[in-house]
Amino acid sequence: MGTTLALQGIRGESIEQLTEVVSLRPHSASAYNTLGMVLSRFLEVQGAREAFEKAVELDPNLVDARVNLALVLAQDGQLGPAGEQLDRALQLQGDTRPAAYTHYLRARIWLEQKEMAKAAAQLEMAVKLKPDYAKAWSDLGAARRLAGDTKGGQQALERAVALDPNDETAQYRLGLACLENREAHQAIGHFEVALRDDPNDRATLYNLALAFRRDGQAAEAKRVDDKLAKLMQASNQVAAVGQSIGNLTDAGMALEKSGDLQGALEKYRAALDLDPTDAVLRLNYGLALCRLGRWAEGAAELEEVLRLNPNNADAAKTLYIARDEIRKHAAQTGKSTQKAGH
User: Fold this and answer.
1) What structural domains does the chain harbor?
2) What does the pLDDT read at residue 100?
3) Whole-number Cα distances in Å, 238 to 120, 200, 273, 274, 278
4) What's the pLDDT score for residue 336?
């Protein structure tokens, strides 16, 4: 019941059900691991960590719990402890295909710690165990390139793109590798694919123009340079408005700190009016609506934040809470209506 509710996005009830499970089965590592997964889904990071730690305490050989614990530790910036959990998980898994994902995660930790050679070694093991692991090939190519192995990096990135041609990050990385290896003509195609998701990405546009110039296509290079110049001009215009937005945001935060939520809401709304595309401004506005108990309005704003930035954890966590409150209000309204009918 708890996991089913979690899959439906029903935060409160799913957590209640899984909490009841661990109270009924206090010695079950699997139950605590499942509770941790549900808490993690709803971005309750501290609670998830405690549940995973309890699962590992109850069963030190439960690989899934160790991997899950490593993920929340890494999310909290504790890279060393996260790496230790993954190392132990790898000892338990051995050279099996499921271990490819654990090797990939271990490599991500090493990449964050700027240990390129160690990251590359983990990624090489990941693709050995799972040869069709496109993301691992992409990260392996990036790690090799940053370590100075441009040819080896390009070979890994070519494999990544062959496995997943729609991965814009891999395409961009391969374009850079081609440029460094004096293959400007090949780089052009990869940069053009990388631009499909974001046609205005400045880094990709810059390198595309560079590739055109090195390939002798001066007219195409100028076309891209002109687009970049227009984007820079628009960016300067946005910067001119930025000071006003900053002043309004600071005033809103000060009012909120003093307890004047309504005043803060007005400042956030004014800032958002100046730039409705800014996910951070919309997040401030949505959170203020929720703090005022205007859950439905807040939920609508948070949904828009997640459309603009699907990885915004604050928006996602508060949206789950808002939906819980909306459901509670609807249930209470339904009960009141039934009583009035009687």
Assistant:
1) 2-165 (1.25.40.10), 244-341 (1.25.40.10)
2) 97
3) 40, 15, 13, 10, 11
4) 59
